[in-house]
Write a structure and sequence with these properties.
Elements lengths: L1 E5 L6 H12 L3 E3 H10 L3 H12 L5 H12 L8 E4 L5 H12 L7 E6 L2 H9 L8 H15 L1 H5 L4 E5 L4 H15 L2
Helix pairs in contact: 1-9, 2-3, 4-5, 6-7
The structure holds adenosine monophosphate.
């Protein structure tokens, strides 16, 4: 299955992506993780991305899309993938559909993790990542509302919405039963 996960920062996308990737035996591709790995390794791409990440802004599309195109060229994505944190705006969604259609592929579904803004601020503050201070969090939420949320309408014909409040396993079960019901 080729899936995209969408949800506000702190909705638990990363955790769910991992669980789903394990069950489906496909790679979990997190653009945030890829950027953080580049920061750690002090690559050119990491240097370009850093100031945007520190501010909670989106890294420019050409940088992000290039990184994703490379990753989707890897052989392990042949049986599907779970994209976590990409696309983050409608332009990236367009680039993704081009990358896939070049391979004769398309997305199976887009899973939206639905959770209240205020609930997640506390969760994020507890997580302790360097971009998890309150100002950056508020900015990431604004970016989500303004740039990422329009994807929900863009993908409405393949959107599966999940209530993302609950126990981890319970939410994973919700995702799979929703995907199952959708695929008949
Ligand atoms: P995340 O781990 O998904 O919260 O991403 C951390 C940071 O990486 C974001 O705040 C952005 O600065 C950057 N980032 C991750 N994914 C993307 C994307 N698809 N487009 C642009 N920037 C991204």
């Amino acid at each position: 299955m080729r899936l995209v996960l969408v949800g506000p920062p702190g909705a638990g996308k990363g955790t769910q992506a991992e669980q789903m990737a394990k069950r489906l035996d496909v790679p979990h591709i997190s653009t945030g993780d890829l950027f953080r790995a580049n920061l750690r390794d002090e690559t050119e791409l990491g240097r370009e991305a850093k100031r945007y990440m520190d501010a909670g802004d989106l890294v420019p599309d050409e940088v992000t899309v290039g990184m994703v195109r490379d990753r989707l060229g890897d052989a392990d994505t042949g049986g599907g993938f779970i994209l976590d944190g990409f696309p983050r705006n409608v332009a990236q969604a367009g680039s993704l559909s081009e990358i896939l259609s070049d391979k004769g592929l398309e997305l199976d579904a887009v899973v939206q993790f639905d959770v209240d803004d205020e609930v997640v601020v506390q969760r994020l503050l507890g997580r302790g990542r360097s971009d998890d201070n309150e100002d950056t969090i508020r900015n990431r939420q604004r970016v989500y509302r303004e740039e990422t949320a329009p994807l929900l309408d863009h993908y409405r014909d393949r959107l599966v919405t999940i209530d993302a409040v609950g126990e981890i396993d319970e939410i994973t079960d919700r995702v799979f039963s929703a995907l199952h019901n959708r695929n008949g």
